[in-house]
UniProtKB/TrEMBL annotation:
Any single Pfam family the record assigns to this protein: MoCoBD_2
Annotated InterPro entries: Ald_Oxase/Xan_DH_a/b, AldOxase/xan_DH_MoCoBD1, AldOxase/xan_DH_MoCoBD2, AldOxase/xan_DH_Mopterin-bd_sf, N-heterocyclic_Hydroxylase, OxRdtase_Mopterin-bd_su_IorB
SUPFAM superfamilies: Molybdenum cofactor-binding domain
GO molecular function, one term: oxidoreductase activity
The name this protein goes by in its record: Xanthine dehydrogenase family protein molybdopterin-binding subunit
Organism: Ideonella alba
Chain ranges of the Aldehyde oxidase/xanthine dehydrogenase a/b hammerhead domain: 241-324
């Protein structure tokens, strides 16, 4: 099956549906003045904006703050359009309403090549697919903080909500003062007229609520004073003072604390609790409870105590009989070998789902006397967030109340309702700050477990915590993957044909079955995340073919920061570098020669190379490697300067160039680049999950060590100026890290590394 055939079968294959495909304007997501519940006497102007009596503005915030600074960036959009200071905008938790659903994340799940989605270049299937998916996402209203999609999703909607609110407030002042709106100005939320009349937004809000806005216009770019300027993060003071409340910080009157232990093997079971009576008698212990396995999870036992320390102490003392999985334990070495074998078989038989095909790559490769071939592979990886998995829940006759650090509040609420057997209307979910997400908090397993435990303790609030060992040992891992890449070069050293056959588990069907079961079917649909970073290369290669074979390893897998790009970029950019050396070309010049039709990519690559001093020799004992990759709509080029210390790679300098459209907060972009590079280097150097007999061998950070401060390179971030709509930066700087490092190590050692980790 090809990508186009699948799309038409899924979307109905009828041009009649195209009528009105632009009928999802941002205005359809504004909501009404009653959408946002009143807090502190605030008057709602639409579903996003409410104004307090003192003039402070409440901004409905459905998206999770997981360290990416999104609350600050979105507050900047509102402050800009409403002529407010940034500190006059206060993000508040949004209610559970469909208008807050993320459309961009679902639209991005369509497997279109980026060049086919450029404005003015969309084909019929692209336009139809985007309209259908946005329509479906609008009806579902699923809030997702993921896929680096928040800024892309909110850009037009939030600015329109703020501009509309501004127009209503100015209209109210105009009616009260009987003056034309054109004669009014606004500064820091105060409306003024040259004739001395003035009022702040809080004094106008009640009248504005019933005032029809006049013509609503976005503030011209040349008048921006906040967007594009570095701004301090709104959450920095509270976090610096220890006042920010993460999931693990939730405290309620009479709260109980629990820690859990899963059966050691993935999918294993809990047998006898051999010393249960003795542990129940330990100081502070209030109970021991068995918990069923959540979807794709493992049975566990939880100890409830008066505080977390006592719960952990008792849990360690508990002697648990571990029963093996019913279907036997997974083995990562065997799985990784089978993935490599599957990639070879797919290449030999041209098997797998076709994500991209141009020209006749298969025929040209068959007729070529010299073919460059390489087999790449990558291991499973854990998320290893700083804040371990946790959730707090209470179940009583009135319903369910949950506090959770989650990236999917609506899905977490639905999962809590299913577990408790109550309607969603009887579940109140509070989304806290998250100590890192990386895709792990797109899952609802810890919420389900907390509610299951609370059901056994009716009327009591209980906080469930996963110890770090459980976090490593029972994650939903980044899947292992393999790819066989084959290419033929012409006499000028240009790529004539490129064929890629990859293999690995499909993430999206597994995620949907766990978290959106009502949308999950009995047959897996092709998963874009498995092929992203392989089928969507920016290079002008006349003959390309990319196929993927979806496997079912039995290992629980999920979204990991940058998802498929995280390892597929290592495969593709490592191989492009191999081809440059095979052609005896400079890796920079080799890439630029294929980017005539991708000027944005070329500009990013040139900027990174210029700032890194590419072409000038590095210090003795060092080498440079580069990589270029687009993901989630953002383009990143990275140059790493590397040496070897005691046989281990040491990165001294990282120069990153970025085109992410309009950089709302340049400081925020730089912070995300820095965090992504440290995250990516940590994974590239030592990240791996080994499974033997179903048991994960890594149990804590020493086995998957993040970079220390001493090991962290000097990091430079350079932005390409752009007037395009913003795209996300929570993930795009991760994918180029591993290939840039491997490419530098090849220059340094002459050995090509085709598997991760690299240390």
């Amino acid at each position: 099956m090809t990508r186009r055939t699948w799309l038409w079968s899924v979307l109905g294959g009828t041009g009649a549906l195209v009528v009105g495909w632009s009928g999802l304007p941002p205005r359809s997501r504004l909501g009404g003045p009653d959408t946002l519940p009143s807090a502190a006497g605030a008057v709602g102007l639409n579903g996003w904006i409410a104004v307090r009596p003192d003039g402070q503005v409440h901004l409905a915030m459905p998206w999770a703050e997981i360290g990416q600074g999104v609350h600050t960036a979105l507050a900047m959009l509102v402050a800009e359009e409403m002529n407010l200071r940034l500190d006059q905008v206060q993000p508040i938790e949004a209610p559970h309403e469909k208008i807050y659903g993320n459309l961009a994340a679902f639209e991005a799940s369509l497997p279109f090549h980026p060049r086919h989605t450029e404005p003015g270049r969309e084909t019929l299937d692209v336009r139809l697919g985007q309209w259908m998916v946005r329509k479906l996402a609008r009806e579902l209203g699923i809030v997702v903080t993921g896929g680096s999609s928040t800024l892309a999703d909110s850009w037009d909607t939030l600015r329109l909500a703020a501009a509309t609110a501004r127009a209503q407030l100015l209209g109210a002042a105009s009616l009260q003062w009987k003056l034309p709106v054109a004669e009014l100005t606004v500064e820091a939320g105060v409306v003024r007229h040259a004739g001395a009349q003035q009022a702040h937004y809080g004094e106008l809000a009640a009248a504005a609520q019933t005032t029809r806005p006049g013509e609503v216009r976005f503030k011209p770019r040349e008048q921006w004073t906040l967007i594009g300027q570095p701004q301090p993060r709104l959450d920095a003071p509270a976090k610096s003072r220890g006042q920010a409340r993460f999931g693990i910080d939730v405290r309620q009157p009479g709260q109980r604390f629990a820690a859990l232990r899963h059966a050691p093997a993935l999918g294993g079971r809990i047998g006898a609790l051999r010393n249960e009576a003795a542990v129940r008698a330990m100081p502070g212990v209030l109970g021991i409870h068995r918990l069923p396995a959540p979807a794709d999870g493992t049975e566990s036992v939880a100890v409830v105590a008066t505080n977390t320390g006592l719960a952990l102490m008792a849990l360690r003392a508990l002697d648990v009989e571990a029963l093996p999985p019913e279907r036997g334990g997974a083995d990562s070495a065997r799985i990784l070998q089978s993935l490599q074998d599957e990639a070879r078989r797919a290449a030999a038989e041209d098997a797998g789902f076709s994500f991209h095909a141009d020209g006749d790559a298969t025929g040209l490769l068959a007729r070529s006397a010299e073919v460059v071939e390489a087999l790449y592979h990558a291991p499973y990886l854990a998320h290893a967030t700083m804040e371990p998995m946790n959730a707090t829940a209470r179940v009583d006759a009135q319903g369910v109340e949950v506090w959770a650090p989650t990236q999917v509040p609506g899905l977490a609420r639905a999962a809590a309702a299913r577990q408790a057997g109550v309607p969603e209307s009887q579940v109140q979910l509070h989304m806290t700050l998250s100590g890192g997400g990386f895709g792990r908090r797109l899952e609802v397993d810890s919420v389900v477990q907390a509610v299951a435990l609370a059901q056994q303790l009716p009327g009591q609030t209980v906080q469930l915590l996963w110890p770090r060992e459980e976090d490593f040992g029972h994650d939903l891992y980044r899947p292992a993957g393999a790819a066989l890449l084959r290419a033929a070069l012409d006499s000028q050293g240009r790529i004539r044909a490129l064929s890629i056959h990859s293999s690995g588990d499909a993430i999206t069907p597994r995620w949907m079955a766990r978290n959106v079961p009502w949308l999950s079917g009995p047959i897996d649909t092709p998963d874009k995340t498995a092929a992203e970073g392989l089928y969507d290369l920016p290079y002008a290669i006349p003959n390309q073919r990319m196929r993927h074979v979806a496997t079912r390893s039995g290992v629980p897998i999920g979204n990991w920061r940058a998802v498929g790009h995280s390892h597929n970029a290592f495969f593709s950019e490592g191989f492009i570098d191999e081809l440059a050396h095979a052609a005896r070309r400079d890796p920079l010049a080799f890439r630029l020669a294929m980017l005539d039709e991708a000027p944005r990519h070329a500009a990013v690559l040139r900027l990174a190379a210029e700032k890194a001093g590419w072409g000038q020799p590095p210090a003795a004992g060092r080498a440079r490697g580069l990589a270029l990759h687009e993901s989630f709509g953002s383009i990143v080029a990275l140059v790493l300067e590397v040496s070897l210390e005691g046989g281990r790679p040491r990165v001294h300098r990282a120069v990153c160039a970025v085109d992410c459209g309009t950089a709302i907060n340049p400081d925020g972009v730089a912070q995300q680049v820095e965090g992504s590079l440290i995250f990516g280097l940590s994974a590239a150097l030592s990240g791996r999950i080994d499974i033997v007999g179903g048991v994960v061998q890594q149990t804590n950070f020493p086995a998957q060590m993040p970079l220390t401060l001493r090991e962290t390179p000097a990091i430079e971030t350079h932005l390409v100026p752009s007037s395009r709509a913003p795209t996300g930066m929570g993930e795009p700087a991760v994918p180029p890290v591993a290939p840039a490092l491997a490419n530098a190590l090849f220059v340094l050692t002459g050995q090509r590394r085709r598997s991760l980790p690299l240390a």
